[in-house]
Specification:
Blueprint: H1 8-18, H2 21-24, H3 35-63, E1 66-68, E2 71-73, H4 78-87, H5 106-140, H6 143-155, E3 158-163, E4 179-183, E5 186-197, E6 206-214, E7 225-231, E8 233-235, E9 241-244, E10 247-252, E11 263-268, E12 274-278, H7 285-321, E13 323-326, E14 335-337, H8 342-374, H9 378-414, H10 425-432, H11 442-454, H12 460-477, H13 481-506, H14 509-514, H15 516-541, H16 546-561, H17 566-575, H18 577-581
Parallel strand pairs: 3-6
Antiparallel strand pairs: 1-2, 4-5, 5-11, 5-12, 6-7, 7-12, 8-9, 10-11, 13-14
Length: 588
């Protein structure tokens, strides 16, 4: 079994050179950030991930969470680890200072989130969802709700969840039936919510649920949904916890992976009705919940990066240690470590460079969020908001789909031993598989990208980003001979994405939806390639050193083994919709 090691040098390089963290740290409101803080935060987070979270990962997967009489117990060691996590202030990195947060950039926070996900993805979901609840209440909660709920959520004394779907609804939230009946200045909620990650547990003193429900006068469809804050334990005016609210965990799911994280079926109102309070205005709940979902979607994309990195490290350690067979083409009969076999090297390189591209794109997107919310220039805020809006579904969808494939390659590197649970490679594949599903499936992300983010502004934000990509390629080509040789395939990939975007804008909604997922994959592949070329150029500007040559080699591999998929994906987008929409229902 290999031990998780945070790729600190890689993370610091991406933050500085590709996400522009030094410039982000100069923005109003980020006065506490800087080189010293960044270095200290990353180093200490790496230590905590390695020493506290990683040792619980495999054991937690084996033990799983347990439900007895409505009470969920996390795997052994999880509650103590979470209390250490909260006491160290890790849940408060990017939260506002007025509620006990540290007001650090989201770009830095996602790098730390990556470490948590690599070391223990199941446990990391609890603080990730809590951060989303904090974001939603900061933006939409009343001053009284903010004062009551945010300080304990920010400090990690309480945890948070989001409650969207129901057994009959799935992803169609217009079918939500949970009813919220007025009762004085509160509401009484009755209904059932499913797939609630960390919906019940023993990690924290209280759990604050954000719940979508309908009031009795609500119109049909998504326009009739409101958002309510519903605590597990009722909260007194002084902030102390009182009696148990009428919220019960009636089951936890038996899942493919993430066994250490309880996924709960919650029943609201089995007795007198669960007490909840309206967040914001009635019938605007889905709008408010999207604040939390968009925050979480970037975090889920980071989870894809995290599990991909962990699967790569595990496979690399095995490939270096496992001696088997002779190296092809070698004259001697000496048996070698399998990392000397060309196909194993190909798989490891594919895992490595795609993870690098994913990380860079995710950190860049987080920095766009920082600029969109903190930049002094309104034009820069608008530009970065547009980039963030376009890139978030791509990061969530592309990074998580890549993570599944990368974790699967990790099993393949191990050969037959990868299919055996004791080696640990299978857990990363099992854990990764849910990431393209929750917080909106890849199809939902793709439809959001195509239907809202691309069509919504006529492609303006996407085309602006593509022009920036082409300018980067041209600048890199003029900088170094090795980059000049790569300019052709990288520029061509951007051109293919541009052409595919025009094709989508010319298509009707049904035709566009039929090829939305290939378009999302194309978008992620090209944008990730842009990051790989930028990384090589930035490294070479520091000097023609071995690390810079390694980045140049990674960019070459990406061009030869990843960008070669672009033409096929672009062809699907431009001409593949009729093969989907034209298939008659009678032919199934």
């Amino acid at each position: 079994m290999s031990e998780y090691a945070a790729p600190l040098a890689e993370m610091a390089f991406v933050l500085q050179e590709l996400a522009g963290l030094p410039e982000v740290c100069s923005l109003p409101g980020y006065e506490n950030a800087g080189d010293e803080t960044t270095t200290a935060v990353l180093a200490e987070a790496a230590r905590f991930a390695r020493e506290v979270l990683d040792p619980l990962n495999a054991a937690g997967d084996r033990a799983g969470a347990l439900l007895a009489k409505g009470i969920v117990t996390a795997p052994p060691g999880y509650a103590a680890a979470y209390r250490q996590f909260a006491a160290a202030g890790w849940g408060s990195l990017s939260a506002p200072q007025r509620y006990g947060g540290q007001a650090l950039p989201r770009a830095l926070a996602v790098a730390v989130e990556e470490m948590w996900g690599s070391a223990n993805l199941a446990l990391s979901l609890a603080p990730m969802l809590t951060a989303g609840v904090v974001e939603a209440l900061v933006r939409h909660g009343s001053p009284e709700q903010q004062a009551l709920y945010l300080p304990p959520l920010v400090t990690g004394r309480w945890c948070g969840t989001m409650n969207l779907t129901e057994p009959q609804a799935g992803s169609d939230l217009s079918a939500v039936r949970t009813l919220a009946t007025p009762d004085g200045d509160a509401y009484r909620l009755r209904g059932t919510k499913m797939f609630i990650t960390w919906g019940e547990h023993d990690l924290a003193e209280n759990i604050i649920h954000l719940v979508l429900a309908r009031t009795p006068d609500a119109p049909a469809g998504v326009r009739g949904i409101s958002l309510f804050v519903v605590p597990k334990l009722l909260v007194r005016a002084d902030g102390s916890c009182g009696a148990r609210n009428d919220v019960t965990c009636v089951a936890i799911e038996r899942k493919l992976g993430l066994h250490g994280s309880p996924t709960c079926l919650l029943s609201y109102g089995e007795q007198d009705g669960a007490v909840g309070h309206l967040v914001g205005e009635r019938h605007r709940g889905l709008e408010y919940m999207f604040t939390m979902m968009n925050y979480a979607r970037l975090s889920v994309g980071i989870e894809g990066v995290a599990v991909a990195e962990r699967a790569y490290q595990h496979a690399l350690a095995y490939a270096k240690a496992r001696v088997q067979g002779r190296e092809p083409g070698a004259s001697g009969a000496e048996r070698v470590a399998i990392i000397r076999h060309p196909d194993v090297r190909r798989m490891l390189l594919s895992m490595k460079v795609r993870t690098q591209a994913m990380r860079a794109l995710a950190y860049f997107t987080a920095a766009a969020y920082d600029n969109a919310t903190h930049h002094a220039d309104p034009a820069e805020r608008r530009r970065n908001q547009a980039y963030f809006d376009v890139l978030t579904p791509a990061v969530k969808g592309w990074c998580t789909e890549q993570a599944v494939d990368i974790a699967s390659l990790g099993v393949q590197v191990h050969g037959g031993m990868g299919y055996v649970e004791e080696t640990g490679a299978a857990q990363y594949l099992r854990d990764a598989r849910v990431t393209p599903i929750y917080e909106g499936t890849t199809g939902i992300q793709a439809n959001d990208l195509v239907g809202r983010k691309i069509a919504g502004d006529g492609g303006a934000a996407a085309f602006a980003l593509l022009r920036e990509m082409q300018a980067s390629v041209a600048g890199a080509a003029a900088q170094h001979a090795g980059l000049h040789a790569l300019a052709g395939p990288y520029s061509a990939s951007i051109g293919a994405l541009q052409h595919a975007t025009h094709s989508l804008l010319a298509a009707d909604a049904r035709a566009a939806a039929a090829v939305a997922v290939p378009y999302l994959e194309l978008f992620g592949t090209v944008a990730g390639g842009w990051m790989m070329l930028r990384a090589a150029a930035a490294a070479l500007r520091r000097g023609d050193t071995p690390p810079a040559q390694s980045r140049l080699a990674a960019a070459r591999f990406y061009a030869a083994h990843v960008l070669t998929r672009v033409d096929g994906l672009a062809a699907q987008v431009s001409a593949g919709s009729s093969a989907v929409t034209g298939y008659d229902d009678a032919w199934w």
